[in-house]
Amino acid sequence: MHRRDFIGAVSGAAALGIAEAAFAASPDLETDARNAWLYVLPLIEMAAARIRMTDTSRPGQHAGINFFRHSEKLAGPEDRGVTTPNNDTLYSNSFIDLTNGPLTLTVPKVGSRYLSVAVMDMFTNNNVILGARTPGGAAGTWRLIGPDMKPTGPRDLQVKTPHAWVLSRVLLDGLPDMAAAQKVQHAVALSGPKAERPRVYAHREAPWSAYFQSAAELLKSDGIGTAPDGLAAFERVKNAGRSKDFAASGYSAADAAAIAKGVESARKVVETATDHVSFIDGWSYLKPDVGDYGDDYVYRAIIAVLGLGALTRPEAMYMRAASEAGSPLFQGDGLYRLNLSKPIPVNSFWSLTMYEATRDGQYFLTENVLNRYAVGDRTPGLKRNADGSLDIWIGRHDPGGERTSNWLPAPKSGPFSLFMRAYLPQPELQNLTYHLPPVTKA
Asked: What is the CATH number of the domain that holds 380?
């Protein structure tokens, strides 16, 4: 697959540029197959991530279900488990199973340091984000309870699916801060009943019969979520087969061909997301419902592939730069410049991260002579202009002189992409009255 682009949107506009009617309920089996494939894709992606992150046979992997795995260093080029990792925070994550009872989540006091602990259901919605925005503060003990349990107090946090992903981000303010950041990281803790490691399910590249069979099991495990139109399409595809279990042999040749065609169409919705990017002053902005999608199952599916684990807009905003060709991918060997004439309005921090684009459309940090993967408001040694503005120089080759201190190296070859992250964005950034300036050819 060529999942080439992380899509963005203008606030209040249809980010994907796809008519809603194109995904409405339809008696057409091909259309139903397309919609059904997209509807269940987040479950498939989360199940795949759960297997990767709980594989105790892998080097450095020590945590199973209901235990935190702490990544005690910043992500680097060697980290390829999840696309578009940030290079600013230490990650801790745990896939959890609440079927045997609640879990206790402990969050430490962190002062002014950025910390967020997100609890995402298996449909990739953020049910809870504990951090600076938590009323009364995030520090203390919380109880994570499943969807069938009733909260008994303000410290009970109800998760919408029996299984979920808990992802903690702790800001690292340079290498001298490592020990202090790791102390905070390890103070984020889970305790509760043990759980068995889950089985392996089909992945998104699997034949449609296996894909839908796995999705049916995941829906039984974690409920139907939202988006009734998507669920209805899924049921119609199932019921079109004689065996009602998605076995390919249960469909007529014509119906099987229609389903295969619909699934291929669904894959292209994700693959060709670049065709639907909207830019404001050279940057794409994600839709306001990112991270908590409601019935927007098409957008939810795309983000599940291109940015699994995305936070909600009040917590963080993700913007992607346009090249001189108006594409989210940069191809040239020249030098680029981002001039920030005034501070980016955030209550925590911002960073601009460089990614190499892989052949299958994912994005990872790229090796370079500076071992620098991002430039942000905490990057040491940056030199400002006489007027106080900041120039970030972007390219494959050292720009030389004083510009080197502000250089964000690009891959030696191949396409690359630039993502801006803004944590705890202020209202003018959230409502897009503030726009980032474009990245331009130097």
From this structure: 2.60.120.600
Q: Considering only CA atoms, which of 372, 350, 363 is closest in space to residue 418? A: 363
Q: Does the pLDDT of residue 24 top 90, yes or no?
A: no
- Residue 43 reports pLDDT greater than 70: yes
Q: What is the dihedral of CA 378, 382, 383, 388, to 10 degrees?
A: -20
Beta bridge partners of 336: 394, 441
- Counted domains in the chain: 2
364-387 residue pLDDT tens: 999 999 999 999 999 999 999 999
> 130-178: per-residue pLDDT in tens?
999 999 999 999 999 999 999 999 999 999 999 999 999 999 999 899 9
Domain assignment present for residue 152? The answer is: yes
- pLDDT-derived band at 80, boundaries 50, 70, 90: confident
Query: Are 349 and 377 spatial neighbours (Cβ–Cβ below 8 Å)?
Result: yes
Place of tokens 């606030």: 11
Considering the domain boundaries, does residue 377 fall inside one? yes
* ∠ Cα 170 348 336 (to 5°): 100
In a domain, residue 288? The reply is no
Q: Which of 166, 191, 216 is the last residue of a domain?
A: 191
- 3-state secondary structure labels for all residues of 62-91: CCCCCCCEECCCCCCCCCCCCCCCCCCEEE
Q: Domain boundary residue among 162, 191, 220?
A: 191
User: What sign for the dihedral angle of Cα 344, 348, 351, 357?
Assistant: negative
**C-alpha radius of gyration, the chain, whole number:** 22
Residue burial 267-295, b: 16+ Cβ < 10 Å; e: rest? bebbbebbebbbbbebbbbbbbbbbbbee
Instruction: Report CA torsion sign: 228, 231, 236, 239.
Output: negative
Question: 237 pLDDT exceeds 90?
Answer: yes
- CATH for 61: 2.60.40.1610
Residue 37: inside a domain: no
**Residue range of the domain that includes 410:** 311-441
